[in-house]
Amino acid sequence: MSTFIAAFVVLLVFFLLMSIGYLVKRKAVEGSCGGLGAIGIEKACDCDDPCDRRKRRMEKEQARKEMLEKNRII
């Protein structure tokens, strides 16, 4: 049980230090490798012909962007 408590306390200390770092720098924690973009993948679904569900979602997103652009005030 003491091992669990010690591990929990260490974890809390790391979270506290990361939160203090965020408050000081105002910069979110980010990875150093660049993620999928570093290996040439621009999106999570990098297939040439997306599935039907993905196509419908992409159409909805495009329609929403067009509606927002059309109804823009400024």
TrEMBL record:
Ranges that cross the membrane: 6-24
Organism superkingdom: Bacteria
InterPro entries: NqrM
Keyword annotations: Membrane, Transmembrane, Transmembrane helix
UniProt-recorded name of the protein: (Na+)-NQR maturation NqrM
Gene behind this protein: nqrM
